[in-house]
Write a structure and sequence with these properties.
mainly alpha, Four Helix Bundle (Hemerythrin (Met), subunit A), 6 helices, about 80% helix, about 0% strand, elongated
Length: about 220
């Protein structure tokens, strides 16, 4: 979020999510999932640095700590941004129309608001892809005592990016510019499918290692 005074506590977020208010909604949940995945990257990195066993990765872990924090903050901001853009979109839909000129103006405002509402879920999709890069590195180089957390992080990102994709789609399908919509869908779907596949691979690898019988 943009400032601490704007931040929800976890309890406040869940209460608001449960309520009849439309925000936070699926878009906020998508961002939260991705933020949690980034947080787990930070935790695993923090608990890997300073360990003799992982001394060869010390510098990489220090960089990952910084990167994870950046991605966590970026995702957190998208929770507030998603709510902000939804409010603008709702306002556009609420414009009163009394003549053709006002009808045209309202449609223009709605179309622009729909495009702006796409920005948070699209940023979430990009960010999720960035978090997966960290998870892949931590799978190979992170503290093995925290291997399960890497797997949980992968599941958070998988849920987050798929949720962000649905949030993007519901707005994309209302935009009139079909050529632009097709282009955005193709770009986003490529990232979503690739990231989801990588998340599943990380999860399977973690599960295989944890299920392996002890010698």
């Amino acid at each position: 979020m943009e400032s601490r005074k704007d931040a929800f506590s976890l309890s406040e977020f869940l209460d608001a999510l449960y309520s009849k208010e439309p925000v936070p909604g699926g878009g906020g949940v998508a961002a939260l999932c991705i933020a949690m995945g980034a947080c787990l990257c930070g935790m695993v990195s923090n608990l890997t640095v300073g360990k003799k066993k992982y001394a060869a990765y010390e510098e990489e872990m220090q960089q990952m700590i910084k990167r994870a924090l950046f991605l966590k903050n970026k995702s957190e901001m998208m929770i507030a941004e998603d709510a902000k853009q939804f409010a603008v979109l709702r306002e556009a839909y609420g414009l009163v129309v009394e003549n053709e000129a006002e009808k045209e103006y309202k449609n223009q405002q709605i179309q622009q608001a729909l495009r702006d509402a796409l920005k948070p879920p699209m940023q979430c999709i990009y960010t999720a892809n960035d978090v997966v890069i960290l998870l892949e590195q931590l799978l190979e180089k992170g503290n093995t005592l925290l291997l399960s957390d890497v797997g949980v992080g992968a599941e958070c990102i998988c849920a987050g990016i798929k949720s962000a994709w649905l949030t993007a789609l519901i707005n994309l399908n209302l935009i009139d510019d079909e050529a632009w919509v097709a282009e955005v869908k193709e770009e986003m779907l490529t990232i979503v499918e690739d990231t989801t596949t990588r998340c599943k691979m990380i999860y399977r690898r973690v599960e295989e290692i944890l299920c392996k019988p002890k010698n």
